[in-house]
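Next comes this protein.

***
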Amino acid sequence: MRLKKLPHKRHFINQLQKASLITLSIVVFSLALGMFGYMYFFDLSWADGLYNASMILTGMGPVAEAKSLGAKLFGSFYALYSGVAFLTSISVMMTPI
């Protein structure tokens, strides 16, 4: 059995930096999407929208109560999206490793 040679350390670091940038982009986009959605549908300030989006994105759960149909639908779809975004971020980050 012949073993493959590992790539150069610099190549690995470059790949890890690219993966980190992509992961950061996914997280920032997801937070912005959630923040603006919470501001619009839940009528929250930007700080409360960011807080709610962060709590959903990390799997902690919602903070503000959804009262309107639009807020309930947004909250549901954002929670589903957050699960996919989290798994995507982890897989992108782990790809070079």
Summary: The chain has three helices and no strands.
